[in-house]
Amino acid sequence: MIPDFHEAMVSYLFLALVFMTSVLGFFHRSFYYANVFQPGQVFSGQRVWTSFSSALVHGSWMHLLVNTGFCLAFMTEVEYMLVDDFGQLTGRVYTVALVFAIVISCNLIDGFRMRTNQASATVGLSTLACAMAMFYFVYFPLDGEDTPSYIFPSFKAFHIALGLLVTFSLTAIFRIRGNQFGHLAGCLLGMVTAAAIRPAWIAEMVSYLFTGN
């Protein structure tokens, strides 16, 4: 269930900003191109702000709606969990820090391998959406249903996280069209940041896998 506005204020305001700036970019191409992340330029010390501002523009309406839809589903839930665990101020500070850290890190990680390709360019929130989805599913990895099944003895959040990781790993390995390496980097950063904020999930997983508890 999507949280109310007051429960995930940072996420809703950020996604509203992304929607407005992306629409602005559709109609004012100079604004769009001013914020596109081009690794060759950034790694030569030019237009460094685009390592974050590229998340504020999108290439098409479909691109915008899919990315904001996924972030609406997962980013709001992540903020809700953080506020619930750490209080409003700290939880929202964590949310802001996650947005900046994940967007910039994913662009730089993916951009480093593409820095000599002058045609390479990135826009959008897809890496953040991947990170937020992974963060959501691993933060409390044992949440889920315990209904017996012939396929899975129980259905846990980490099953979905594992599925996401495998899916994006395969798409990156086989170089399926799209920024699949960036999506994989987002998933991995989602795991890392969840562990940095709540390292207990790792111990919970180890205990579950080796003892069943």
Question: What would you say about this model in short?
Answer:
With about 210 residues, this protein is an all-alpha fold. Helix content is about 70%, strand content about 0%. The mean pLDDT is about 95.
Q: How does this structure look, described?
A:
Helices cover 69% and strands 2% of the residues. By secondary structure, the chain is an all-alpha fold. It has a single domain (5-211), classed as Rhomboid-like fold. A two-stranded antiparallel ribbon has the order 1-2. Helix 1 (9-27) packs across helix 2, helix 1 (9-27) runs antiparallel to helix 5 (61-86) and helix 7 runs parallel beside helix 9 (180-197).
Q: Any idea what the shape is?
A: globular
| CATH top level class name | Mainly Alpha
CATH architecture: Up-down Bundle
Strands ordered across the widest β-sheet: 1-2
Number of helices: 10
- The helix-and-strand class reads mainly alpha
CATH superfamily: Rhomboid-like
Distance between the ends? 27 Å
What Rg, in angstroms, do the CA atoms define? 18 Å
Q: In the residues, how many domains can be counted?
A: 1
Q: How would you state the average pLDDT, rounded?
A: 93
Most strands sheet: 2 strands, antiparallel
Beta-strand percentage range: under 5%
**What order do the helices and strands follow?**
HHHHHHHEEHHH
CATH fold-level name: Rhomboid-like fold
Helix coverage percent: 55-70%
Poorly predicted residue ranges:
none
Count of distinct strands: 2
